[in-house]
Design goal:
heterodimer; A: about 250 residues; mainly alpha; 2 domains; B: about 100 residues
């Protein structure tokens, strides 16, 4: 039994040696050099696999961005409150980004080196900033235009309520603290208008680029202003409801 | 003839005196003419009477309009919250 094992090992060694010698004679390199040649082949195969994987990953990431940009396009086309000017500006950005990323996708497919794919990946992020910049640009602009529409409606409502309160007081009706609530409503509307002033123009003027921190600071400021406007909008709406209730017979 | 003129003058003087007693604007009698309806119009146009007749109507209309506007504003607020939620930061924001 042990002898059989020794014989098998011996045959295996002989076969390996003969194979190495045959490879060496076929490729014209000494037998000792066969191992490095095999290593180079493995390395090349690894590099090819790495390149293919990198291209696949980058393509998937580009596809995710393209899907998001198309979804944002649907959102702005369906937004009833979006102004024509803002819709045109956003559509222009979306169209340019979709065209650029589609072109980049084809470029990635044709790349032959990892370095080139890495450069394409960087371009995918820094030249477009789809998640960091474009998405907030779309939704904060939509939010700000909804707030502007609400502001206009509340200003008109404030005027009508003020007239009705004056008339009711003249008629001898007790309107409680309606005038104080109207004054509070007006100051909330003024604060809302102040928060919305320049919000969209400033946000849409932010370009993509390598400085993620600077871009994030701009989107955070716009987000804060939009939230501030919403707070004042809620306060003004609450005041309007209270005045409406005081006017009820 | 003289009697007729005297009666006319008396009637005019009486009319002027009555107008003065009501405190009406002498100019108001010119466009309104001799029609007694002009007296009524002067009374209803006084500043105290107008709001009493129109105030309840205005308040009801204002409340009705406010109801409509506030329903619309509630819809706008819901839409706004949706947009702000979508504009929140996400894990992908580094990109």
């Amino acid at each position: 039994m042990r002898t059989d094992m020794l014989i098998r090992r011996g045959l295996l060694f002989a076969a390996t040696t003969l194979t190495a010698a045959a490879l060496a004679s076929a490729t014209g390199v000494p037998a000792q050099a066969a191992a490095p040649v095999a290593g180079v082949a493995v390395q090349a195969a690894d590099q090819a696999a790495n390149l293919a994987n990198a291209k696949k990953l980058t393509t998937v990431r580009i596809d995710g961005r393209l899907a998001m940009l198309r979804a944002e396009g649907v959102a702005i086309r369906n937004a009833a409150r979006l102004t024509d000017a803002h819709q045109a500006a956003l559509q222009k950005t979306l169209d340019a980004d979709i065209a650029g990323l589609t072109e980049l996708r084809a470029k990635v497919a044709a790349e032959t080196t990892l370095e080139a794919v890495r450069a394409d990946t960087r371009s995918m992020v820094e030249d477009y900033r789809v998640y960091l910049l474009v998405r907030p640009q779309v939704h904060l602009t939509l939010a700000a235009d909804v707030e502007s529409a609400a502001l206009t409606r509340l200003r008109t409502l404030h005027g009508k309520l003020a007239e009705a309160v004056t008339a009711a007081e003249s008629a001898g009706k007790d309107v409680g603290d309606a005038e104080a609530k109207l004054a509070h409503m007006k100051s909330a509307l003024d604060a809302m208008e102040s928060a919305l002033s320049g919000l969209v123009d400033d946000l849409l003027a932010v370009p993509p680029g390598p400085d993620a921190t600077a871009i994030k600071a701009k989107t955070t400021a716009a987000r804060t202003d939009a939230r501030t406007a919403r707070t004042h909008l809620r306060a003004a709406t609450t005041d309007a409801k209270a005045v409406r209730d005081l006017l009820k017979p | 003839m003289r009697r007729a003129i005297a009666m006319t003058a008396l009637a005019v003087a009486l009319g002027v005196a009555l107008t003065a007693c009501r405190g009406g604007d002498p100019d108001a009698s010119q466009p309104a003419g001799p029609d007694a309806g002009s007296t009524v119009a002067t009374t209803t146009n006084s500043p105290e009477a107008a709001p009493k007749t129109t105030a309840p109507v205005d308040a009801a209309a204002a409340v009705s309009q406010a109801d409509k506007d506030l329903v619309e504003l509630d819809k706008l607020l819901a839409e706004l919250d949706g947009q702000l939620k979508k504009a929140e930061e996400s894990p992908n924001d580094e990109d």
